[in-house]
Amino acid sequence: MTTNRIGRVVEVFADVCCPFTHVGLRRFVERRAAAGRNDVRRLVRAWPLEIVNGEPLDPAFIAEEVAEIRDQAAPTMFAGYTGVLPTSSLPAMAVAAAGYREGVDLGEDVSLRLRDLLFELGRDLGDPAVLAKLAAEHHLAVSPEDDQRVLADHAEGVARGVIGSPHFFTPSGGFFCPALDVGRDDRGHLRVHADPEGFERFLEACFT
Length: 208
Fold this sequence. Notes:
Elements: E1 8-14, H1 19-35, E2 40-46, H2 49-53, H3 59-72, H4 90-102, H5 104-119, H6 128-137, H7 144-159, E3 167-170, E4 173-176, E5 180-184, E6 190-194, H8 196-207
Parallel strand pairs: 1-2
Antiparallel strand pairs: 1-3, 3-4, 5-6
Helix pairs in contact: 1-5, 4-5, 4-6, 4-7
């Protein structure tokens, strides 16, 4: 039986522009629904790669990741991705933080919607009008407190040993990018494949 009661919160540190996170979050939602486990929610914390790397994300690099994921692991995803990235992902993650100020359910919904706008609908998350519309749809007032929460999430992620985006924390341990097996071949070409065994271990840690 499906329940809407929140019984457990699984944390994940991630950048809103990370395509690996988009896959992991969506597959988690699908499996959660199939298992009738809506009591398990996700707290999507900010892991701003522009701060981690000391420079903005490279649109060409993200486009390569998207192409490899779509070709090798998720052919039905990223249908509307245009390759346009915001100069900074911090304002988008502040909108998600505003959602979480109102509750875990709303924060999760906003986090998913942001990624759908970017990767499925081709919206520019660097456009203030796009973010303002999303905030209005969810009756959110983004404040400087939310900007600070993004930076605080990054600082906490550093303290907790986050190694990349996405890094999940479950009651039985951490999982980095559990839905996908990511690497490069001998020629340096990106290779991305589904990791069903790793994902099942991750789901067991979330739901057990």
